[in-house]
């Protein structure tokens, strides 16, 4: 509109003829499609081509009518309008259309001069010079607009991944603490959710399940007079699988447990959906038929909706912490293996060479070198065991008991310990982060027994019935009477790990000698458990 007003004024000044303003009216009409239908794939480009054609034809007519302007330079009054359609095409990143507009503009200018007066307008150098000047400017606008746009755009700040991660984690912590039952522990959030649901829906049994890395569900929390062996697979024919797949509540007239005594039962399975992703399930069961009508289902979903976001935040925080911890453990293992361990091996080789080149009669020096070589060998063995501990992880398919057993066997072999295993592990799994912490606690307890207890036997008991778990490590050594500082530091680390997963660390004397270290998570099951006990041969 500003350009139309400008060329209208210039046309009046150059020609002094109000009749020439008809071209300005035609330009305004030609601009209407591109102005009102800017995103239309046909009308908008057609309008721009119409503007270019009208401008070119008007240039010849106005040049002829400009008697006071020499050699056809009167076309300068209307040609600036070429910038409007050309700049519009350039800003919309349509270089092909811009080039076509330039070609049509050149033809229209020549045609406009020929229609006005071929002898006086088209043959005049002023008209062609004016047309050529604005075609060059139009080409600059068309092909340099993108470069100018990028140059004028403010530079984006260089991303700082760790600074951004710190900001987001700080915000996550603040938001999580401001909510009811605020914590970044998935188990604590799940228990608080079950407490809230008690006031909304009846139930003899309830549980919160979430997905694990192995494609199975893990029990984060549950309530009831007896512990339930819930269905934890998503490929079974159950309301659990249906609710997970459809992200809709499901009511069933059968139990969602693998083993049930029978009788009337009502089950309600509510998916915990955060955004578009299912992160877990809430299961409510009661020993009565038709206990969950639509009004109860609606009340339950009103409680589980906000809890899903809280639980997702806690699970994400657990994932971030586990990834960072595992990465750091692997990095330390690599540095120890490539650095200190290799250097100690070279020191051992140097001692061997010194022993081989000792002159006869240097028995005292030879004895000192043998003692030094033995100490270097001991340190290298300790480093190798530390590397094994750093690299040990709970396999998704093997389970927590298998990881603890592998570690106990390896250390038992190195120390000549007789290791006794007692395992009672459910098919259900604990959350990956919880299993990792329990493995580290068991490793520290086994390591302390090997290093400081002077024991001959080691008893390792692992009971896992999610969300309950108990790991117990006992030895027949001398206990903690020596008050070794490094042993006490190990106890502090174990206590911190147990607190992190909301577990309890218990250290008691073993009769007649030795120590028992146990970590307990949750409350013990009330059903009878059947355990398989294995006593390994000496050194295994």
UniProtKB/TrEMBL annotation:
SMART domains: HATPase_c. Residues 433-525 form the Histidine kinase/HSP90-like ATPase domain. Keywords: Kinase, Membrane, Transferase, Transmembrane, Transmembrane helix, Two-component regulatory system. The keyword Translocase does not apply. It comes from the Bacteria. The chain crosses the membrane at residues 20-37, 72-91, 98-116, 122-145. The keyword Cytoplasm does not apply. This is Histidine kinase/HSP90-like ATPase domain-containing protein. It comes from Actinoplanes ianthinogenes.
